[in-house]
Amino acid sequence: MSCSPLCTACLKNTQFLWADNFDSKEYCFYKCLYCGLHFIYPIPDAQVIDLLYNKNYPSYQFDTIDIDIERAYPPLKVKIARWRFAKCRKTSFRFLLEKFLAIAIEIASGRMFSFPLGVPLSLPLGAEILDVGCGSGKWLLFMQRQGYVNLMGQDVSGPAASRLKPFGIPVVVGTLPEVGLPAELFDLIRMEHVLEHVSNPIEYLNEARRLLKSHGRIVMTVPAIESLSYKISGRDWLALEFPLHIYHYSLQSLRHIASRSGLTIRRYRYLSVWEQVIGSVDRSYLGSNLYRVLRKRIALISCRPFYAIINAIFTTGDFLSVEFVKNDM
User: What is this structure's pTM?
Assistant: First the structure.
């Protein structure tokens, strides 16, 4: 591969890793030698995108409202998120106790899950919130049940517009740069598992920045290419989803993309998900005995916290959650 494309994030040289076929077309996987961004090239065309994002795409599925929301956001998870991101009450013993319990529960469960949920839940109930790539709309319905009243969704297709209409939650259809929403409209823009799917991440972040109020925030989660699970499984990594995921980000590559979009990373957190290791092992060893051992209940209970601690030591995780603010704040 003598003519490798430049990195989208930092515009530096890239290295060819491997190639795979989908729908009779070859896609190459590249790694940036400077910032660590990984991406496929060429970008899938409209025909391939239609094949990938059909009506059976998992994020568009919605069984029943109550069951689906309860499964995704159980009460304990919500409570932990609120405790972790509650505003400091100086010498309040209860505040310190709740913080300690939230951290302890996260470590014990092996899931640092409160960041992408806790940041939105720390906002006042009147905050203007946009959910980019809202899919089935269940997160917006969950936030409405928490008392938030100024909610809006966006998606390129899918059932959210018709499903959320009876609940009074508007959904704009089209890509984020195309829908033409007014500037400085939102206090929070949520982009959960969006940036790895889009062919133009800088254009998306440019538009998200335009839509933010002066003290607004963008919160997103993406698969972390620097994760231990990727280092272990490589081409069999569960989060690759070739060619569904176009980009795979490192923290450094996200900093470069944010800088080019007039944004700054305010804070971030890696999320450890033991199931990513299990799924990757299943692909690597084709359902071997090792996979069945890792799936046993004793492994799920004992390995999750150990895996989370190892990730914390090496400052990594399977997913990366980031909070962006405008550079001019």
Answer: 0.89
Give residue 27's pLDDT.
93
Pairing mode, strands 128-132 and 171-173: unpaired
Give the per-residue SS3 of the chain. Answer: CCCCCCCCCCCCCEEEEEEEEECCEEEEEEEECCCCCEEEECCCCHHHHHHHCCCCCHHHCCCCHHHHHHHHCCHHHHHHHHHHCCCCCCCCHHHHHHHHHHHHHHHHHCCCCHHHHHHHHCCCCCCEEEEECCCCCHHHHHHHHCCCCEEEEEECCCCHHHHHHHHCCCEEECCHHHHCCCCCCEEEEEEECCCCCCCCHHHHHHHHHHHEEEEEEEEEEEEECCCHHHHHHHHHCCCCCCCCCCEEECHHHHHHHHHHCCEEEEEEEEECCHHHHHHHHHHHHCCCHHHHHHHCHHHHHHHHHHHHHHHHHCCCCCEEEEEEEECCC
Beta bridge partners of 221: 192, 321
pLDDT band, very low/low/confident/very high, at 283 (cuts 50, 70, 90):
low
| Distance from C-alpha of 282 to C-alpha of 196, rounded to nearest angstrom | 23
What is the distance, to the nearest Å, from the Cα of residue 219 to the centroid of all Cα atoms in its chain? 9
Q: Please give the Cα distance from 189 to 123 (Å, whole number).
A: 12
- The arithmetic mean of pLDDT across residues 286-314, rounded, is 70
C-alpha to C-alpha distance for 167 and 134, rounded to whole angstroms: 15
**Which of 97, 65, 94, 53 shows the shortest CA–CA distance to 241?**
53
Let me know how long the chain is.
329
Q: In what order do the strands lie in the sheet with 247-248?
A: 14-22, 25-32, 38-41, 247-248
Question: How confident is the model over 66-95, as pLDDT tens digits?
Answer: 556 777 788 888 888 888 888 776 567 888
C-alpha distances out from residue 4 to 8, 27, 149, 241, Å: 12, 13, 48, 22
Band (pLDDT 50/70/90 cuts) for residue 35 is very high
